[in-house]
């Protein structure tokens, strides 16, 4: 076999083109074979099928680039839970925009590494522009806001707690029961005390309980609030919480991984009032920003707040190089080698602009309200609450939590829908996290029909006779999948 | 503007194709404009040029997908330090294979997230196959080796220290002066004592000093050894170190981020004798594996050793879902959302096979020996030592460290070459880290001519008259860039 060609250089595009043709064909063929939001059969079946169709990962003799790409990309696509399908709506798992995925190819081909200027001359300039731009959206009133790019909300939350630890020593974190699991995991990682967890009735932090905790606890404190919870999509009363932390001299971190992009919508940004009062803010653009993973951000009101991340490695940022003007990038992350996630984000922001992004955000939130309307009007479905962002919790009436969990797993096993689950008000709910701006009212109708039909078929205890509902068509051809190939609308 | 199309679904490839055409054109045009390994002018010039050509990151009205892709990808490419250019050889900054970059597009388009099965049905199966395959290469003698995928060696080293902390509590780390900076940074992150640093004469850990440290220190100990150091590419005496840690009851971690892939070369795998005796092994396939960042691995001899990473988040791995057979992925990383880096790695391994990978590795190590030969034979260059892997340290004769640093920065500023720097034996050396298997003897000749010519031009103190050397041609057209577009050869 000749030495395989590289992606870079002036010849790279020529070598990439036929390989990309193979990838695009495999993406299409795999999606056609799947013919739905995820493969049917459940984990054992899917794993077996994936393994038998892909063959050994490391054969003695290679199968060649086109064969390997065709085989593995087709298998991955056929076996994907594809967030571009309107019935794949379990998690904060976004369908990426085509333009963001295309931009990401350039990151892979050029492979700038963001740990030193001489690996990323233009990429580091672009990243600096992007992080300053995003930080200014969050902190419009401070002269030198800044941000670092992370692998996601989890790493951003870790960094927020790390910065607080470096400001104060081993401080006590306070979060509510609605906080992301990464807060507790970060305290474990960083050797900090476990968080004090205060109640979150109806899914938001209870300010009275926070006041009590701030009054009772001693020593340096960090409150972490959430703007867009994982379970219900609710936003804590940020401004009220900021009043309390200011009064009590506690630090405030806001995990706005989900809700943060609402800042870009004139219609919805009022939901984030008080965000700029936090010492640190987490933001994920691989949620309401339609980026391929990963595209996390941690923002701070002043670039000096990032000083604890500064780090010295003579081969990357020797003193005399830094003095001679070579930018020192190592303090922009705890990682060393680092992919230029700034590129796809910058391409998306520039291509869509403020108005285009606001339109995408507003459109997505509208789909969530529409789904909530349909559930509210449905005789056999119960809505948990009107959505704050784009998360809709619901459950069939007259059933129990075990059955709700069974409905979810049945939809997964049959390849009909990917719905999430959440506990709220002491009960288990089905969760639809809507991030696909192309979803239509017809998609919602079909989804709810799938749920009510599955509820009926899996019911083991007597229940009120359900209203007749159109059964979902068999897997092939399946009417609920006819919309899959139709984006954009 | 219509709602921008998504990358997924059956229609995704149709929407991606014209956008990818724009990206490929921009990659080509940017590389042609750069016309060398990196842009000339140094940081201020490159940053200014990048900013003025790209325009605002977040305009009020979007510029549209093709315009944004063309503008930003061209700027990123024109301003790249492109590791596909044979004179871009400073760091462990690999030129990605075209087939790996093409596979990575599918990861971006499908966006499986590796934190729950219902976001990554086939991707999680593929990742499990890949991690088991790689772990078995490292630990061929244990029944259940396993590995997790990381963002790179830095995260893998952090995890190794975290696992050791969870086994033993706040243990003492011992590393040599040649260890990667991430070891010390990980102890800081994890709240562990700073490492005890023992000498590394000639770039490798001194076993006598290790013996003394193991004899002197009390309490649980973790020794971290290195297989492929950043400065000289040397490999610590792994088997000897494993003997010492076994005798003294200390744990052993081996950072084989750079050297690990030598396992796949029958010619060179003997360099890693003893690797399998470590409790944890770090491996980066974005170094000697030609992957776009990132592609890190942490391997363990038994999958139970990863248990401390297990973590519970009811929305991702509820007990009844796990009991019902839904795989629990959350314990495979400290991250939550996680890109499927397994895909590009698996495509590369399957396409090339063992023999293809061995050929790439052997070819790359041969280029390093060839460069070392040329330096050894050169009257005005001094070679530090024969390369162990593919790192070659050298310096002009009769000069001082300040001048060596100036030569490196001058080559960078002029856009002629990206060379690294390393301190060894009390002096500063130029460092060529060779990872490009397409590099030819002619490329090496031109590189050394550039260095000697730059040394002459920047010399401020009298020195022996240099042998006449052909001056590098002016930046455009530049003879040293004629090879850029010629891969594969």
Automatic annotation (TrEMBL), chains A, B:
Taxonomy, superkingdom: Bacteria
Species name: Streptomyces nitrosporeus
N6-(pyridoxal phosphate)lysine sites (modified residues): 287
GO cellular component: a single term: cytoplasm
Pfam family, one: Pyridoxal_deC
Cofactor: pyridoxal 5'-phosphate
Name under which the protein is recorded: Aspartate aminotransferase family protein
MF annotations from Gene Ontology: aromatic-L-amino-acid decarboxylase activity; pyridoxal phosphate binding; transaminase activity
Chain intervals with Pro residues compositional bias: 463-477
Ranges for region Disordered: 30-65, 454-489
Gene3D superfamilies attached to this UniProt entry: Aspartate Aminotransferase, domain 1 (3.90.1150.10), Type I PLP-dependent aspartate aminotransferase-like (Major domain) (3.40.640.10)
Family statement: Belongs to the group II decarboxylase family.
Keyword terms: Aminotransferase, Decarboxylase, Lyase, Pyridoxal phosphate, Transferase
InterPro entries named in the record: PyrdxlP-dep_de-COase, PyrdxlP-dep_Trfase, PyrdxlP-dep_Trfase_major, PyrdxlP-dep_Trfase_small
Alphabetized SUPFAM superfamilies for the sequence: PLP-dependent transferases
Biological processes annotated in GO: carboxylic acid metabolic process
């Amino acid at each position: 076999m000749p030495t395989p060609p590289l992606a870079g250089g002036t010849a790279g595009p020529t070598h990439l083109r036929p390989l990309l043709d193979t990838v695009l064909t495999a993406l299409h063929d795999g999606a056609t074979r799947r013919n739905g939001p995820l493969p049917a059969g459940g984990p054992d079946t899917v794993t077996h099928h994936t393994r038998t169709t892909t063959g050994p990962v490391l054969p003695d003799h290679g199968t060649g680039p086109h064969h390997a790409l065709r085989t593995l990309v087709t298998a991955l696509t056929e076996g994907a839970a594809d967030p571009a399908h309107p019935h794949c709506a379990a998690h904060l798992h976004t369908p990426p925009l085509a333009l963001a995925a295309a931009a990401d190819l350039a990151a892979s081909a050029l492979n700038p590494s963001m740990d030193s200027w001489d690996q990323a001359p233009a990429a580091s300039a672009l990243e600096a522009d992007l992080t300053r731009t995003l930080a200014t959206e969050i902190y419009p009133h401070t002269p030198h806001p800044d941000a670092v790019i992370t692998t996601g909300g989890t790493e951003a939350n870790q960094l927020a707690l790390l910065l607080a630890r470096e400001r104060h020593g081993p401080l006590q974190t306070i979060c509510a029961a609605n906080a992301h699991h990464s807060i507790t995991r970060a305290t474990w990682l960083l050797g900090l005390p476990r968080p004090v967890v205060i109640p979150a009735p109806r899914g938001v932090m209870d300010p009275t309980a926070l006041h009590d905790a701030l009054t009772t606890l001693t020593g340096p404190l960090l409150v972490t609030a959430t703007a867009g919870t994982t379970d219900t999509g609710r936003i804590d009363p940020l401004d009220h919480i900021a009043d309390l932390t200011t009064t009590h001299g506690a630090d405030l971190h806001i995990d706005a991984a989900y809700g943060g992009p609402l800042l870009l919508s004139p219609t919805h940004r009022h939901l984030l009032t008080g965000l700029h009062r936090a010492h640190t803010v987490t933001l994920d653009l691989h949620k309401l920003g339609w980026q391929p993973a990963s595209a996390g951000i941690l923002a701070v009101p002043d670039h000096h707040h990032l000083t604890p991340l500064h780090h010295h490695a003579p081969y990357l940022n020797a003193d005399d190089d830094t003095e001679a003007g070579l930018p020192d990038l190592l303090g922009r992350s705890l990682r060393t080698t680092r992919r230029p996630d700034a590129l796809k984000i910058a391409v998306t922001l520039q291509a869509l602009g403020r108005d285009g992004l606001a339109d995408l955000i507003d459109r997505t939130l509208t789909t969530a309200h529409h789904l909530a309307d349909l559930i509210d009007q449905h005789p056999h479905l119960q809505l948990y609450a009107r959505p704050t962002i784009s998360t809709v919790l619901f459950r069939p009436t007259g059933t129990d939590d075990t059955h709700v969990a069974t409905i979810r797993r049945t939809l997964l096993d049959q390849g009909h829908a990917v719905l999430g689950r959440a506990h709220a008000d002491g009960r288990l709910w089905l969760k639809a996290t809507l991030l696909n701006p192309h979803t239509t009212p017809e998609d919602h109708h079909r989804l709810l029909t799938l749920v009510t039909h599955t509820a009926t078929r899996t019911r083991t205890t007597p229940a009120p006779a359900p209203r007749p509902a159109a059964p979902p068509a068999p897997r092939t051809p399946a009417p609920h999948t006819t919309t899959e190939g139709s984006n954009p609308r």
